Amino acid sequence: MKNYSIWQDFKTNVKCSKINKDLYVDVLIVGGGITGISILNELKENNVSTLLIEQNKCGYGVTSRSTAKITYLQEKIYMNIRKYSLDKANLYLKSQIEAVNKIKNNILNNNIECDFKQADSYLVTVNKNKVKDIKEEYEFLKNNNVNVEIINDKNIKMGIKVSDTYVFHPLKYIEFFKNKYQDIIYENSKLNSFKRENDYYICQVNNHTIKAKYLVIATHYPYFLIPFLTPFKSHIETSFIGAKKVNKYVNQSLINIDKPTVSYRFHEDKNSYFIYLENSLKSANIKNIKNYFDNLKRKDNFQYIWSNKDIITNDYLPWIGNISNNLLIATGFNTWGISNSALASMVIRDIILNEENPYIELVNPKRSINLSKIKRLPIDISCSAIAYLKSTINNVNNTHIKYEQINNNKVAHLNYNKDILVKHRCPHMKCGLVFNEVENTWDCLCHGSKFDLTGKLLEGPSKENINVDKY
Ligand SMILES: Cc1cc2nc3c(=O)[nH]c(=O)nc-3n(C[C@H](O)[C@H](O)[C@H](O)COP(=O)(O)OP(=O)(O)OC[C@H]3O[C@@H](n4cnc5c(N)ncnc54)[C@H](O)[C@@H]3O)c2cc1C
Questions:
Q1: Ligand 1: distance of its center to the CA of 174 in Å?
Q2: Do 308 and 321 have their domain in common?
Q3: Chain-wide mean pLDDT for the chain?
Q4: Which atom of ligand 1 is the closest one to the Cα of 34?
Q5: Is the pTM of this model over 0.85?
């Protein structure tokens, strides 16, 4: 069994160079996941001078562990947004349909070979108390002129289906753009810091400087703290996923609105695969990561198992746009970042080109929120607090790990084939790290940083490795 995602078996043929000189550009995009790459394409198609830097390899962050459905039927997101604004729910639906079509057109117009396939999207419940929620979602979609059908099946209490939705291979999609923009993408090139000077951003990337008029942060969780993006306005959600070979591709993808979350899709390249996700839960509530993987293994004979995490905002809308003086971000995708990366590309394009766009206010990261209507606010606050407190005491249930004091610094000592010493806290905000013995990583349950066994940073918001050579 492989303890990484099915997409990560894809090997890129396009090598982008590491930054090797100082540069000047109008727009610098930081992060080569689907968000950064989509924004790059949109800006280049509009002749904007742009560069993209990626600290590792493009696509191998959160994007490479997604289920990669291209759909606007996103669990009960419209129901959630509707609770505080019907207008916003209507507009968000419109934005997602446009975003799905944007990706489809990108693929068809460029003949991108990325295993793109039509797949009906189903939203279902097996719980009779939730039937009314699905009915409401059905009415909402109907009122917005969506072609939605009710599904009758003896295995569910109620379900609905839309058909203008798709699936694809996210890394093959990214590969096309890497190839197209190879000369303006720098891999293994990390933004270490930036400052604003005379209307420009001066960015330290490895040992070089890039000067840019606009800085677009597409790093999933930005490493720097910005007032609106406090841990109290969001939480991290983790899910567990498996994939196995099957005899044939079925054009169905499904998600439920019950607990635990179940979601699946099929994939076809030379072979056909079934991709199954279960248990989307607040990272703060995870007691023992291995148990969730064990549950998954008991379900089926998966050839791949992996986990993934995303940022859930407390009003269920993404954060895309200007946060100050031409500093833009695109994140907070509520586990629907494939379609939202296309939305981000259109919104950020129009902000930079000073064009109108109907969604700029909807996703404005500085939007004001009526906190009394955000039922999740207390939950988000307590989740952040629980994740922090729980992790500070390092109650890790693993006999291979012990904590030691070296030169006044506490470190985690992992006796795992060989001795490994790492910092026991994430350099980002000093949350304690938990060892994920299935994927062989050190995970921060507060903000999602991930480090490999030896302490090398895989994913931020941390900027640093955690190996303890320094001590
Ligand atoms: C379990 C799960 C299933 C999902 N399934 C779906 C789905 O079916 N459909 C859907 O629409 N969405 C889905 N999503 C959501 C979607 O996968 C993500 O929202 C999306 O992939 C995020 O992409 P990104 O480009 O913003 O982040 P990433 O892919 O993480 O890219 C960010 C990049 O920035 C780089 N970076 C970070 N810091 C720096 C730095 N300092 N300098 C340079 N580079 C840096 C990182 O190395 C990384 O490559 C799912 C999410 C989860 C958790």
A1: 12
A2: no
A3: 90
A4: 25
A5: yes
Residue from 53, 54, 449 whose mutation best tests the ligand 1 pocket (most atoms within 8 A of CB) = 54
The tokens 């000592």 sit on which residue? 413
Q: Does residue 151 share a domain with residue 26?
A: no
The pLDDT tens digits for 377-409 are 555 555 556 655 555 444 445 666 777 777 666
**Ligand 1 pocket by C-beta < 6 Å: which residues?**
30-36, 53-56, 60-63, 66-69, 190-191, 218-220, 223, 239, 241, 277, 308-310, 331, 333, 335-339, 341, 460
Residue 158 shares a structural domain with residue 272: yes
How many domains does the structure of the chain reveal? Answer: 3
* 147 and 242 housed in the same domain: yes
Residue 97 lies in a domain: no
**CATH number of the CATH domain containing 409:** 2.102.10.10
Is 28 buried (19+), middle (13-18) or exposed (0-12) by CB count in 10 A?
buried
Instruction: Please give the Cα distance from 412 to 421 (Å, whole number).
Output: 6
Which of 6, 8, 55 is the best mutation target for the ligand 1 pocket, counting ligand atoms within 8 Å of the beta carbon and taking the most?
55
Supply the range of the domain harboring residue 410: 393-459
Query: Which H or E run contains 77?
Result: helix 77-82
Which of 42, 60, 67, when mutated, tests ligand 1's pocket best, judged by the most ligand atoms within 8 Å of its CB?
67
Q: Report which of 288, 220, 308, 367 is spatially closest to residue 3, judged by C-alpha positions.
A: 308
Strands 208-217 and 200-205: antiparallel
Q: Which one-letter DSSP state was computed for residue 281? A: E
Task: Enter the tokens of residue 216.
Answer: 């677009």
Residue 40 maps to which CATH number?
A: 3.50.50.60
Locus of tokens 């952040």: 384
Per residue in 336-388, pLDDT tens? Answer: 999 999 999 999 999 999 999 999 999 999 887 666 555 555 555 555 566 55
